[in-house]
């Protein structure tokens, strides 16, 4: 097996796992995905049988990245646009997604955006018809929960809070039935519970709102800070928790946070919070600011803001003069003038008790702790530094091989030959070799595999132990691995960070085992299972 064919092994294994997952989920749903994984598998097998192997390596990995990474990026883009109610942008992204999500999954996301667009326009029957069509299709449990979550979001747009709760209770009933029937892959309808929490907040039933968030098990389902924060933005705003909302916005400084809750969204929720506290003038000022910040032609958001502004105006009038049917009709007429035909729900000026807010704060802190541990998207300085250093050393080595300058070749020879692990040389006193061999790699495949493991596992370990301890683990494992290699096979030469990376793997497994009081059981068990699978594959 040559160096190029080594790249085909993880490609083939990943495709086999993908094919297995398609059969486990639902072949009716994932037939398009199955075809994609089979195509990648065929290309990988051809790479072992025909030459040049690099042609099949490049083709196979390009297909794999397109069908998996690019598809996931587009899927996240659709979800972000839907969360911000940017329907046109979501529809454009969903149409592009169809090119990569073949069959029912691609159609599903286009229909999902179309369904929400119907709800945004008040066309409830058309939206419900789309949802009913997919319910009859027989979606896998996870996608059924996604459909329910977005269906409830559509009901939220029409402010039918009782309808939201009815859909949530139905989703819980289906979940219980699946548990009884021992359906594979069944999960509690987390997103539906979060939306039900919003409905209870709108009805000023804050105790029940917190109950829903607890049932949603946020720590198990949100492993990035930004989506977690968006859950609590609406909760703290509707509870009238001004200080909590301000603190939340201060912490939401990343580009991902700005995309999830843009400036006009922050002004909107500040207005909702002020209204819940009875600060009507401040609420109207925030809504006016929101209107000024809105993108042009964003009718969904404009109607949403105007509706809330009119509610605050009506509450302000009722606080100063006796409320009358004529007053309400006046404000309803103002809404109709803006093209809003919704019924006007009176504003509830009430804030949550401190005990309720304290429960929510504890829940958020726990979820944030888990997110800090599990978020492999964070940029750890130690992992980033090691990746850059190992890459630079390898690039220098490649320069030494192809460069004709004697000076460069001599330096490369000294670095490589003087740094690789050689038992006899170490026994002669060249002790530094048990460390320096970690920085050298035989070829590009060797480097890539180690960098992949370092990034994948290292960020988790750095999140748990911190940068300094992570470096101690990495270099300590590398040195001990070198000593073991030297004692077991003293006559062989060795280079590479594989031993250090496997030490990081061990630290990741140990941390997962020891954090049983922090990590939710579902997260912990899932992590341990894939680690066991990875260990078997390594063996």
Helices and strands in order:
Blueprint: H1 3-6, H2 8-25, H3 27-49, H4 53-83, H5 87-97, H6 104-120, H7 124-137, H8 141-157, H9 161-181, H10 190-202, H11 206-216, H12 218-221, H13 225-238, H14 242-251, H15 255-260, H16 263-276, H17 280-293, H18 299-320, H19 325-337, H20 354-374, H21 381-402, H22 406-419, E1 421-422, H23 423-427, H24 433-436, H25 444-465, H26 467-488, E2 493-494, H27 498-514, H28 521-538
Antiparallel strand pairs: 1-2
Helix pairs in contact: 2-3, 3-4, 4-5, 5-6, 6-7, 6-8, 7-8, 8-9, 8-10, 9-10, 10-11, 10-13, 11-20, 13-14, 13-16, 13-20, 16-17, 17-18, 18-19, 21-22, 21-25, 25-26, 25-27, 26-27, 27-28
Rounded to an integer in angstroms, the radius of gyration calculated over CA atoms is 28 Å
Major β-sheet profile: 2 strands, antiparallel
Kindly report the spatial arrangement of strands forming the biggest sheet: 1-2
Q: Beta-sheet strand percentage?
A: under 5%
Which secondary-structure class do the elements indicate?
mainly alpha
Form type: elongated
- Estimate the mean pLDDT confidence: 86
Task: Estimate the helix proportion, in percent.
Answer: over 70%
> What is the distance, rounded to the nearest whole angstrom, between the alpha carbons of the first and last residues?
18 Å
Number of strands: 2
């Amino acid at each position: 097996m040559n160096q190029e064919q080594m790249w085909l092994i993880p490609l083939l294994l990943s495709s086999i796992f993908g094919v297995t997952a398609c059969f486990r989920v639902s072949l009716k749903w994932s037939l398009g995905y199955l075809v994609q994984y089979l195509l990648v598998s065929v290309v990988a097998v051809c790479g072992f049988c025909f030459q040049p192997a690099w042609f099949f390596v490049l083709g196979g990995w390009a297909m794999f990245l397109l069908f998996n990474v690019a598809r996931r990026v587009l899927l996240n883009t659709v979800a972000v646009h839907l969360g911000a109610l940017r329907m046109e942008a979501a529809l454009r992204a969903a149409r592009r997604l169809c090119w990569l999500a073949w069959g029912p999954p691609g159609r599903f996301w286009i229909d999902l955006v179309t369904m929400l667009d119907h709800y945004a326009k008040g066309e409830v029957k058309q939206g419900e018809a789309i949802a009913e069509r997919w319910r009859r299709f027989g979606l896998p449990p996870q996608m059924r929960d996604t459909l329910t979550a977005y269906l409830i979001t559509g009901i939220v747009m029409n402010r039918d809070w009782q309808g939201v709760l009815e859909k949530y209770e139905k989703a819980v009933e289906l979940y219980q039935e699946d548990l009884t029937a021992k359906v594979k892959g069944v999960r509690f309808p987390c997103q539906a519970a979060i939306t039900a929490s919003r409905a209870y907040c709108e009805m000023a039933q804050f105790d029940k709102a917190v109950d829903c968030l607890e049932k949603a098990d946020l720590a198990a389902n949100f492993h990035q800070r930004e989506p977690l924060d968006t859950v609590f933005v609406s909760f703290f705003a509707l509870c009238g928790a001004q200080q909590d909302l301000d603190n939340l916005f201060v912490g939401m400084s990343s580009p991902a946070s700005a995309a999830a809750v843009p400036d006009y969204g922050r002004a909107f929720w500040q207005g909702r919070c002020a209204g819940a506290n009875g600060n009507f003038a401040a609420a109207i000022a925030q809504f006016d600011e929101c209107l000024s910040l809105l993108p042009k032609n964003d009718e969904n958001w404009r109607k949403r803001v105007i509706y809330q502004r009119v509610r605050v105006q009506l509450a302000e009038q009722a606080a100063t003069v006796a409320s009358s049917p004529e007053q309400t009709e006046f404000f309803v007429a103002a809404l109709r003038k803006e093209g809003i035909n919704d019924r006007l729900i009176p504003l509830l000026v009430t804030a949550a008790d401190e005990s309720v807010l304290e429960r929510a704060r504890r829940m958020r802190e726990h979820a944030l702790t888990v997110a800090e541990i599990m978020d492999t998207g964070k940029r750890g300085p130690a992992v980033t530094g090691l990746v850059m250093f190992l890459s630079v050393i390898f690039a220098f080595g490649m320069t030494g091989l192809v460069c004709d300058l004697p000076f460069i070749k001599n330096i490369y020879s000294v670095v490589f030959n003087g740094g690789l692990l050689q038992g006899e040389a170490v026994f002669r006193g060249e002790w530094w070799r048990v460390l320096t061999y970690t920085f050298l790699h035989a070829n590009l495949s060797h480097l890539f595999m180690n960098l992949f493991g370092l990034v994948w596992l290292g960020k988790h370990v750095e999140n748990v132990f911190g940068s300094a301890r992570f470096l101690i683990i990495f270099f300590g494992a590398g040195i001990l691995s070198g000593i073991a290699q030297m004692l077991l096979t003293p006559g062989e030469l060795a280079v590479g960070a594989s031993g250090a990376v496997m030490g990081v793997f061990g630290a990741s497994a140990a941390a997962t085992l020891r954090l049983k009081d922090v990590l939710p059981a579902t997260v912990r068990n899932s992590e341990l299972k894939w680690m066991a699978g990875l260990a078997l594959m390594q063996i």
